[in-house]
Amino acid sequence: MTAMKTLNKIFSASAVVLALLAQGCVSESPFGEKGEGTLRLSAELRGDITSVATRAADYDQTALEDNLVVYIQKENVGVVRKFLGLASLQGADVALQTGHYVLEGWTGDSVSASFDKKFYYGYLPVDVKEGNNAVSLKCDIANVLTSVNSELVADRVSDVTLEVGHTRGSLTFDSEMISSDPKGEKKGYFMMPNGVTDLYYKLSGKNSDGTSFSKEGEINGVLRAHDYQFILKADASQVTQGGALVKVEIVEVPVIDEEVTVFPAPTFKATSGEGLLDLERQIDLTQGEYSDIKLRILAYKGMSSLRLSFSSNFPAIGGVTGLDVIADGRSLLPDEIMTEMIETEDNVASADNEMVNATEYWLTFPVSYLRSLPISSEEYTITFDVTDGRGYSSQQRLRWANSEEAVERLAPVGSYSKEDLLDYTAITPNSAILYGAVYDDTVTDFGIRIREAGQDTWTSLPGSLTKASAGVTRFSVKAAGLKASTKYEYKAYADDFEEEEIRSFTTESVFEIPNASFEDWSTYSASTILGTKNVILPWSVGDKEASFWGSGNEGGATANKVLTNKSEDMVHSGQYSARLGSDEAMGIIAAGNIFTGYYVKTDGTNGVLSVGAPYNGSHPSALRVFANYRPGGKVKIKNSPGEDILDGLTEGGTDQGQIYVALTTEPYEIRTNPKNRRLFEKNDASVVAYGQVTWKEAFGPDGELNEVNIPLEYKANAKTLRPTHLVIVCSASKFGDYFCGSSSSVMYLDDFQLVYE
Q: Alpha-carbon distance 699 to 683, whole Å?
């Protein structure tokens, strides 16, 4: 039975719906399928998923599953696999290099407050070892839920509403909703802003004698995946003539009971003293001081087999070269090798992703024993094959040398493959940053040699040291002047050494902005409160959703205004440019604007836009455009959002124009209605690069277009997230989203181009 906690509080909000469009990433395997371990994936959505009454008709469980996005990220590397849709990863076997990974998944709409938009999120660290590894990603509902159970009698109270909200959004359970849903099946969903843990509330209504009542308060410390159920009752002990006071009780109900559990294949960890050993490397006993080597093997749901196999130079052990210590016991092992088996309790420690409901088998190899073995010109090895109670297996070797002849000699330098070091920003259409490592600090000349695939001549690029760690010095080179969409090969070199393995990469393709010079225009039909209107569109075909460019013309059509249109007044090339002219209707400023995406609909006198057009994922350094801007005067400020937002724009002053560009991983839904306003946020997690120019005065000579270059600044997440959408927004009145500006501001634009270094 789910535990309930009673709180003597209530909560409130005004209706706000902020829609965030969820754009899925396609499944891709950018670096091939070769790996040392196999990750078997499964996933599930948990919490409030089966309630038909709370599910939006057009966004049901199937849609949530189909839009599930899952990333596999490698520590110090970034995203190495992406999946779209629950079906695409259920039971999928993914080949990966061994190492530490993080699985991250999400689906739904991350909305501040909504009655039908929910958001699910999952995060899971896992160590991939050789052999099979099985994990299940639990994507739990990330919302705080609310509902109203009413036991009020209609002849005692009326017009009862309950408002619930936080600093960025609110919802109203109106009287019709409360009376038609007495059991509280209709849910409200809240995404809490960072640092905000409280919901405020306001209950209001009328007694039967017409007098009004209201109560306000807060719920402190709300938790996601918890339903805060408001129970409304008439307080019979305080009945007054003609009505009754309302008693409010809040019950907190968790919607998910169990913990997230990780079930990987058996794992290995080796230590010497307090230090962690890299089991992929040979232990050189001819140098350095070592403490006893301890190896821990961890298997979930028991250990059915643990087989040790010894190299041929190992002294004979009971006449066998291998043994199963689970089946045969440790009797055949040398007395010096100590063992211990621990059966842990039924629990999971998620902090370091190590199961405690498992079998731990410890083996201790005294260094004195390892050094006492006969001197060998070959390395000694012990191979461990372990199978857990589910049949999943893993293998690991312990290697050491006790003579100079047996010491493993590494190459003096080596290059990193994209599997080892992933950085999406490193390769552009015209350049590439490549990485290598120096293993021998005596080398003096090192770097990367590169050539176009199929060519004979190599170009040597000297390396520049970037980082030293664990005895390895990393270096990088930058190859410039490359061709777009072309395959190149590279390898490391040092002094008279040349790496045998040849690696390769392909440069990005250049993205050509469609209708960049605005030569193509058409019209489409749109329904407005004034009837059907022909709306001008900067595209050759009258289909706004298929168009690369959109504008606010559909909103302006409601007042018979054309805000954006072709013009021959000023052009850089061709016959036309785009003219963005702000205007005024019924005392409301409408900004002349153009943007990538399309105009979704008109909400009263406000607009709803889908901003962002599909993009090829390349990494330009800047956006170039030819522009002319003339700001209008006599600025009007309507319902000022605050001086800090308006950035110097004042009543009666001069207007401001703006162009901003962004690379993102999804499109944005922008709403200008003050009740549910949502504007573009450059610091959003899906933004990987951003740049802008703002004009507070005229730009360009009279009658001429001037070149403008807007540099793109890449965020840290650009290394691991490849952009899927290009956002360009241009406005003759920068603060038109707030209906502030001048009706005489004009901007001309022509020949947009992405600049690649």
A: 28
Question: Under DSSP, is residue 338 helix (H, G, I), strand (E, B) or coil?
Answer: strand
**Helix residue spans in 547-705 (DSSP H):** 553-557, 643-646
Q: Which helix (H) or strand (E) holds 465?
A: strand 464-469
Report d(CA 595, CA 661) in Å as an integer.
10
Q: State which H helix or E strand residue 177 sits in.
A: helix 175-180
* Pairing of β 668-671 and β 613-614: unpaired
Whether the CA torsion 440, 446, 451, 455 is positive or negative: it is: negative
Over the Cα atoms of the chain, what is R_g?
33
Looking at the chain, the whole-number percentage of residues with pLDDT higher than 90 is 36
As a three-state string, the secondary structure of 429-463 is CCCEEEEEEECCCCCCCEEEEEEECCCCCCEEEEC
What are the pLDDT digits (tens) for 182-192?
A: 888 889 999 88
Residue from 442, 3, 432 nearest 226 by CA: 3
Find out whether 522 and 548 touch, Cβ atoms under 8 Å: no
318 band by pLDDT with thresholds 50, 70 and 90: low
What pLDDT was estimated at residue 443?
85
Region of poorest pLDDT, from 78-82, 199-203, 271-275 = 78-82
Question: Whole-angstrom Cα distance, residue 416 to residue 503?
Answer: 9
Of the candidates 228, 314, 158, 209, which has an alpha carbon nearest to the alpha carbon of residue 8? 228
Which two three-digit tokens encode residue 102? 């993080």
C-alpha to C-alpha distance for 207 and 639, rounded to whole angstroms:
35
Quickly tell me which residue has 């590494």 as its tokens.
Answer: 410
User: Strands 169-173, 157-166: parallel, antiparallel or unpaired by DSSP?
Assistant: antiparallel
The answer to whether 459 and 418 have CB atoms below 8 angstroms apart is no
- What pLDDT does residue 349 have? 35
Concatenated DSSP letters of 529-582: TTEEEEEEESSSSS-TTT-SEE-THHHHHTTT---EEEESSS-SSSS-EEEEE-
Q: Which of 673, 671, 513, 540 is nearest to 596 (CA)?
A: 513
Residue with tokens 């969820």: 22
pLDDT top residue among 471 and 77: 77
Q: What are phi and psi of 34, to 5 degrees?
A: -75, 130
Question: Residue holding tokens 């080796």?
Answer: 270
